[in-house]
Amino acid sequence: MNGDLFKTDVSIKDNLIFIKSKADEANQAQTNSAFSEKWEYTAENAAEKDLDMLAQTMHRNYLSQYGFDSEEALAKFLQTKKVILDAGCGGGIKTAWFAQLAPNSTVIGMDFSEGCMIAAKKYAALKNLYFIRGDIADTPFKPGVVDYVNCDQVIHHTENPPKTFAHLTSLIAPNGEFACYVYAKKALPRELLDEYFRTHVHNSTKEQIWELSKQMTQLGKILTDLHINITVPDIPMLQIKGGEYDLQRFLYWNFLKCYWNAELGEEVSNIINFDWWAPSNAYRYSEEEYKKIIADNNLKIIFFHSEEACYSGRFVK
Ligand SMILES: C[S@@+](CC[C@H](N)C(=O)[O-])C[C@H]1O[C@@H](n2cnc3c(N)ncnc32)[C@H](O)[C@@H]1O
């Protein structure tokens, strides 16, 4: 590990880089503890085969959401990057993937939750992979030292996403790239329910949120198993797009997050529902709002992807 990367003193033991880190804001602290709970629960409860399936799904999504034709194309790209930061690495599935695809690069995963400590243990055998527990809005890196900053499915969970975006932009090395994903705004009924819940989640215990997440999995499964297709009119006042939908998908996108995926199974579906319902910080953006943040940071878009759930892309200075 090259000590020149850091602007402050850090201590390094094995694959862990230690810095002082504490969340001062109540919502960020709650978000950290929600994700710590998610990663600890995942490590204890999810079956290895379901996690393998989840990793494959995550890899597939990553390639399409960031414009890589294949895993080989991603590997070739990563191998040109000496220092790679996975900002908000969670349990480290993608961080470890990057480290395997680019064995001569230094890959660093950073996360504010227990997730990165679990990842550090799980992936200790990968010698080019390090983890830091701390805030990605205030990293210990010098400006301009990271060749690939990846912030996948994270920035909307930070206290002030535009501020985090600006900080991560400052880390990009000359000729480096920044890959980032934000949650997309959904139809009005779903936004209202989600927003209501964000402000009340502080008053719920983790047991209550697990209970809710499991109920959402059951509801999602029941609706999916009906195999009902409906044709819906456009309802512009509620921002609902008309068309033909599976009933579960229609309710999911427009009213209520009730995730169910038979391939991933019940426990992983519960975890995905918990991931949605538990954190206080989970901002959503329209495409225009996201593109404004990118433009405000004087970045050029080299790839942009949009789908119902998110906007993602790769940007350069
Ligand atoms: C949905 S998970 C995504 C994990 C991983 N990037 C992935 O795609 O699998 C979001 C992660 O963001 C982390 N996070 C939220 N706010 C953060 C912050 N300010 N600094 C570092 N990590 C943060 C959470 O702890 C959580 O592990």
Low-confidence stretches: none
Largest sheet: 9 strands, mixed
**Estimated share of beta-strand residues:** 15-25%
CATH superfamily of the largest domain: Vaccinia Virus protein VP39
Number of domains: 2
Helix/strand order, N-terminal first: EEHHHEHEHEEHEHHEEHHHEE
Bound molecules: S-adenosylmethionine
How many beta-strand elements? 11
Which assembly state applies to the chains in this document?
Answer: single chain
By CATH reckoning, the class of the largest domain would read Alpha Beta
What portion of residues is helical? 40-55%
Structural class of the secondary structure composition? alpha/beta
Described by the principal axes of the CA atoms, the overall outline is: globular
Topology:
Elements: E1 11-13, E2 16-18, H1 26-45, H2 48-66, H3 71-78, E3 83-87, H4 93-101, E4 106-111, H5 115-122, E5 129-133, E6 146-151, H6 161-171, E7 172-183, H7 188-200, H8 206-225, E8 229-232, E9 243-246, H9 247-254, H10 265-277, H11 287-296, E10 300-306, E11 310-316
Helix pairs in contact: 1-10, 8-9, 8-10
The protein binds S-adenosylmethionine.
Give the structure's gist in a few sentences.
The protein has 317 residues and is α/β, with parallel strands linked by helices. It has helices at residues 26-45, 48-66, 71-78, 93-101, 115-122, 161-171, 188-200, 206-225, 247-254, 265-277, 287-296, and strands at 11-13, 16-18, 83-87, 106-111, 129-133, 146-151, 172-183, 229-232, 243-246, 300-306, 310-316. Helix content is 44%, strand content 20%.
